[in-house]
Amino acid sequence: MQKKRIAVLFGGKSSEHEVSRVSASYVISQIPRDKYEVITIGISKKGKWYLYNGDIESIKDGSWENNPDNKLAFIAPAPRVGGMVILSEGSYEIVKLDAVFPVLHGKNGEDGTIQGVLDLAEIPYVGCGVLASADCMDKIVTNIIFEHEGIAQAAFTWFYTSDYKKDPDKYIAQTEEKLGYPVFVKPANAGSSVGVSKASDRNELRAAIEKASKEDRRILIEENIIGKEVECAVLGNDEPFASVPGQIAPASEFYDYDAKYNNADSKLYIPAQISVELIDKVKSIAKKAYRALDCTGLSRVDFFVTDDGRVLLNEINTLPGFTSISMYPKLMAACDIKGSTLIEKLIDLAFERADNNV
Questions:
Q1: Using 50, 70 and 90 to split pLDDT, how confident is the model at 283?
Q2: Which of 164, 195, 258, 357 is the S-S candidate for 215 at Cβ 3.0 to 4.6 Å?
Q3: Are residues 142 and 269 in the same domain?
Q4: Do residues 193 and 211 lie in contact, with contact meaning Cβ atoms separated by under 8 Å?
């Protein structure tokens, strides 16, 4: 039987470019070569697309961009092409693709944009579709949907940065009246906690809003929740499977970018150190939220679990990290879905989604 050709997309222009490279190196290493032919397509920080044929370690450390054998390439958003166009010295070559694994975190990779390109090309791909990707990437939209669905979460407020700049005192007062201190300030669209700050007074709030405004034109502000940080990995399309939840003990005050990817002192507990009843509740809400937002393939659903037993949904990540310390693969491994088995299931779900138009 002829092997299916899978393209792994990595890099990108987002603030999570480096994390994408590390995640991609793991994914590439785990794709079963007896079933699939693997093609790697790297996107530089400046947005240039290249067909890359070098070793995995060069992807991880970023030196892949200097490979002299790189060729300019792109995925054509046209079904008649059905794959990748490689440009070389005034000529071109078309390589058909059976599926794409977009290991792209953050903007232009996790927000529905690349998913739209692949939909136009009619190429199956791993993960959520355009709608779910866009909605889950936007923290304000997800909060509004959770509120409508009756899913408990932190109290929040939001505003446009352009409105804030016209009358900062109005939105500072709005935040203080509705939420008090401390609060968490977040750009509406950014992953891996990029641009997120905790503010404990008015001066810190102004600084946090300024920081978040560099990442997005809309700002979300949420009340501070004191509780355990618990995450649940979800896998599937119409009938999703929820993993045993895990718990994070961040190395820093909260689980920021550095704590997630650079600080080995952050500790993960699997299963989470909560009661069996709360574990079941987390899994149930994770699947409800996954379906409410029309997620497919995979997502990691993040919660706060308070000492008095409240389960508050924080956010959904449609393309969670696949690094050596990432929670998603660790949670699935705890459910005996490990390494190449997990990656193969994700590819199978991509074909299932395409075949059933889900």
A1: very high
A2: 195
A3: yes
A4: no
